[in-house]
Structure formats: C-alpha cells, structure tokens
Amino acid sequence: MNSDIPLQLLGGLTAREFLRDYWQKKPLLIRQAIPDFESPIDADELAGLALEEEVESRLVIEHGERPWELRRGPFAEDEFSKLPEREWTLLVQAVDQFVPEVSELLENFRFLPSWRVDDVMISFAAPGGSVGPHFDNYDVFLLQGHGKRNWKIGQMCDSESPLLQHADLRILAEFHETEEWVLEPGDMLYLPPRLAHCGVAVDNCMTYSVGFRAPSAAEVLTHFTDFLSQFLTDEERYTDADAKPAADPHQIQHDALDRLKSLLAEHMSDERLLLTWFGQYMTEPRYPELVVGPEDVEEEDFLAALQDGAVLIRNPSARLAWSEVDDDLLLFASGQSRYLPGKLRELLKLICAADALHTDNLGEWLNDEDGSGLLCELVKQGSLGFADE
Ligand SMILES: [Mn+2]
C-alpha cells in the first residue's frame, strides 16, 4: 500500500507521518476516524458472546462484592440481569475471531504489520462504567463504537508505578491527568504503550480496542533459546582448549567469559533460526484449540472440491505471515513454519492477504504441485478451511 496517501483513519496523516511522529511515541486523537461508524454488533450480541465457553470475557463492577470486583466468563444469562444500573463494564476479547464484520475492521490497520495485531477487544460499559486508571504495555487504538466515553490520559508509567492493592486488576494508585476528551461513535484515540489512561462511560457505550502484540525482552530470550536448544547436541559444550595455566585456581578469569560470549554469539546470530522462531512465535494463535484441521484430506478430493466451486477461507483464529531468506521463502501459519521454493512468492502473498481462495484467484496455482500441496497442507493444519456454502 502507498504510505504517502493521507488517511481519514489517521485524521489526514499519512501512514509514514503517523509511524514517524506518533506510533510508540505519543497519543493521537482522531475525530471521525471512521465517519458515521456503526458498530456491527450491539450490546446484546456482545453479552451473548460472553456466554460462550470459547470466548474470553470479564466483568468489572466498580462497587461489587468488593471495590473493582472482577468476574471471569463464560457468564450465565441471568448474571447480566442482576447487574447494577451504573458503573460496570463487560470486556470481550478477540471478537474479531468470532464476528467477521469486526475482523474486517482490521483492514483499516494494514499500514501496520498484520503479525503485530493481537486482537479486537470490545467493551460495553453502563453509565459511569470504567476499569479504573491503568496502563498497558501495548499500543492500542480505541475506537468508539456506540454511545460516548470520556477518556483521560496521564503520565507515562512503568513496572515501578504504584498500584492499588488488587488481586486481579492493575489499577494505578496515582493518575496525573494531562488531557481529556469525550469520544463519540467513529472517533478514535491512539495510545502508545505505558501511557496512563482512564475511560469512563458517559452513557451506555461500546468501545473497540485494537490491540497489538510485542514480546517482552524476557520472552524473546527464553523462547528463542528454548527453540535454539532443540538444534543443539549434548556434545556441544563450553570448551577451553589452549587455556593458560591458572594463576589462582579459584578465580574465574575473563578469558572464560570470552569463550562463553563467543558460544552465545555463534548461536544467537543464526538468522535463519532467529527468523524461523520469530515468525512462529508471532503467528501463534491466541486460542490454539480453535485452529484444528480435519485429520485427513486427500489432495485429490481437495482439488476436486475447489474445481467444483468450493471456496477456501482463513480460519478466523489462524495467523499467517511470510518472509524470505536467501532464495527461500518461509510461510508461518499459526505457530508453524515451512520453507518453500521462491516461485511460490505470489501464492504466499495471496494466501496471507485474500479473504477467500477459489479457482478464480488461485488460477494456475492449482496446477502447480507445490502450490496445491501447500494449500492442502494448510487445510490439514487448520489455518484454511472450506467455507460452509
Ligand atoms: Mn487500556
């Protein structure tokens, strides 16, 4: 996409300008980011999702059994009828995986890598409802879907910032307000990581949070080294051939550190493995149990179905990305990776981007053994599946 076209979604900024001046740096309020936005789901439908076993949901009740009572879903229907008139919030995670129209909203954010997107969380709040002043370690776009919400932003925080005593919620003990706005449907607020914020419902309101994922340094190091260690043999060890006689046998000399550093550097600089791990990690599904393919698909039957007009769609819980290294391509699909020949580049791009795959857009790829084999593998793995109709 062209990064130099002013975008309504970014209040007339181009993607390049937004990334340069705001992304990960400072907040941005965008009035009518999506003009006349109408929420594709209403409060009852959102509550309906919160009844489902596979949906992750929470209720925050400001004056419940204790201050800021947190309840976790799935909920029973009568729980909603017993809620107070005011000051509670229902939060439903990853609605994009369950409601296609919500997933379509993400198309607006294609100026950012799709593998950085985590999910679209939707919250419904009764008047006065809020989850308290807090900060997140992730970037977020807060799109007002229905009703009005008052947003205040405050200081930059970190893990030292004082919190209220609470078993489950991270509510800031101090909030130093810097700005305040009332958002109406279609308005959007971008917040960089660690900026204190507090949103309070003015009336019954619904807010969409487009959240992003970024591994912590600790996660990168633990998970990458775990991944790496599968490829290392027990024989490969710290070695000290040609060591000098020890002046004091109890002292760890710095030449030992140098040997360790070169052992680490040799493995840490393996770009193929680093890329493979990263692609797998960033495409890990939020709910892996929802990415399950059919046990057996015969490639012949699979191709016949497509020729017969069947349509392949991405599993809404699957995550796809691709990359290249030397002359090879890498496809990452829901936490797995595979090396593929360079000739499949356009097919990989199509698989990652297209809403649906069928004979019209697949064309000659169905006559390519590697291409059709790949599609069939993705069906077996559960990242792609046949549409119902
Ligand atoms: Mn937040």
From TrEMBL:
SMART domains: JmjC. Residues 101-229 form the JmjC domain. One of its GO terms (molecular function) is metal ion binding. Its cofactor is Fe(2+). Gene3D superfamilies: 50S ribosomal protein L16 arginine hydroxylase, Chain A, Domain 2, Cupin. Keywords: Dioxygenase, Iron, Metal-binding, Oxidoreductase. It comes from the Bacteria. InterPro entries: JmjC_dom (IPR003347), NO66-like (IPR039994), ROXA-like_wH (IPR046799). The keyword Iron applies. This is Cupin domain-containing protein. It comes from Pseudomonas khorasanensis.
